[in-house]
Amino acid sequence: MSSVTAVGSSNSIDLVQNNVMGKDEFFKMLIAQLQNQDPLNPMDGTDFTAQLAQFSSLEQLTNVNSNLEAVTAYQKLMSGVQAVSLIGKEITAEGNTVKASGSSVDITYNLPEDVSEGTVSIYKTDGTFVETIKFENQGEGINSVSWDCSSVEEGIYTFEVSATNAAGDSVAVDTLVKGEVTGVNFLNGQSYVIVDDAEIPFLSVISIKDIDSVS
User: Fold this and answer.
1) Strand 141-148 to strand 174-187: parallel, antiparallel, or no bridges (unpaired)?
2) How far is the first Cα of the chain from the last one, in angstroms, to the nearest whole number?
3) Which of 5, 78, 128, 166 could join 124 via S-S bond, C-beta 3.0 to 4.6 A?
4) Quick check: 205 and 91 in contact, CB under 8 A?
5) Looking at the domain assignment, is residue 134 inside a domain?
6) Based on the domain organization, do 56 and 124 belong to the same domain?
């Protein structure tokens, strides 16, 4: 019986059950293969060297995976710490939610170029259309329109912005969320800051500003 057959029969059940061969299993298999080889037909040196190279590669990959896991855990920890530090600060982040509260609220967005006209369409969170606000002649950069929300129920709404330039071409607009961070949530390993009762991914934050103290 060849050495490969002997080794396979003694380890096949464990390997099939685990479906993954770790470095310990590989090393045990290599030792067993050496112990059970045919003395009249020993393992070729080239084959032995190739298997040692495989073991070395497996060892390196295992170490790399361990290091990556440690780095990922550290990044999540630092993300959480940084998110908590934003409480009480005003942020601007990627997003398309706005909270109707009081008589009016600003809806913020970023224009990649000057536009001649555009619209802001507002919806309930279930997708029901509420109203449209028109604007004209706004420059490149962060802009906003004021929404008179006195006639709607207080709560979270979503919005979309469309615009055209002087040539009549459509312009892609990035919608933004702006407001004070009042809390932080941690869900599925991710950090979310809370702005106007809406959860905003920490990685979506693009600017941070201290809120001026009221004397």
Assistant:
1) unpaired
2) 90
3) 128
4) yes
5) yes
6) no
